[in-house]
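ok trying this again, last paste got cut off
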Amino acid sequence: MQSVGVPARNIVVYDRYAYEMDIGSYQVLVPAGVRVVGVQLDKLDASGYDPNIYCEANFFGEWETRSYMASIVATGVSKIINVPTMKDHSASGVTGCLKNLGYGTFNNVHRSHRTPFSFTDPLIGVMCSVEPLRSKAVLHIMDGTRMVWHGGPLTQNQDFIHKAGVMLVGTDPVAMDTIELEKIEAKRSAEGAPSVWSRDPNSLTQDGTEFYQDAAKNLFYRQPHHIAAAGKLGLGISDLKQIDHRILRIRG
């Protein structure tokens, strides 16, 4: 961004949890002058959110039915470059552009899934459609150099981390997530793991250790349909036949 004339003082790197930014050592990795912002210090900290911009829905009778937009997004930046990693997710099916953008910008998102049920569809798409987030997110760069095909989003099990060696770049988050979903489904199939679309109750477990060690197990009935649902909200194209997908191969 600096190479095209954006001064460092105008660049902000943000994520939901400050401690995750600290673990990643973002402060020492970015150029001098770039701001690193963790929106909240802990799960109960709401000081970094705009009380006037929120999504409201009641899924399980939770006492707080609102999720608020980060103030840095609402009023602190003019454009957003979304940088997700390619991985599956036990509740939403995959974590891609949409989930990274929505759940990285709003608080109180864990309420959308309670074992074994998940309402990540429709919440992910609804969050991404809220202004000004919707119009500010103009570019998406997905890191698929290493792809988590099971145990996402937090697995450290190297058996489930595949060196896919790809990067996805685009302006349509729905199209990119559709392609990501296809790649993760293909890898799971090749490894003999159930589809993320599976509704087999025998695959469910409440044991997190079992989930992280066995690709045949999952914590929730996943909701990969959140991608197509976001498309119906006008956020992009979910039909593979209509996506303008161009492949550039780089040889070292």
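PB: full thing came through this time. The CA atoms of residues 87 and 114 lie 20 Å apart.
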